Amino acid sequence: MDAPSAGPDAVLISADSHVLEPPNLWLDYIEPAYRDTAPHIVSEKTEDKWYIRDTPIASIGTVSAAGKRFENLDDLKLEGRWDAVPKAAYQPADYVKAMALDGVGGAVIYPTQGLFWYRIPDVDLANAVFRAYNRWLADFCSAAPGTLKGIAMILLEDVDASVAELEHASESGLVGAMLPVFPSPDMDYFDPRLEPMWEKAEELGLPLSLHVGSNRPGQNELGADLRTITPSTRTTLDYWVRHSMTAIIFSGVFERHPGLKIISVEHELGWIPHFLKQMDFTYDERRYMTPVRFAGNRRPSDVWKSNVYMTFMEDDLGIEMRDRVGANHMMWGSDYPHAESTWPRSRQILDTVLSGVSASERRMMTHDSAAELFRFD
Question: pTM for the full model?
Answer without folding.
Answer: 0.93
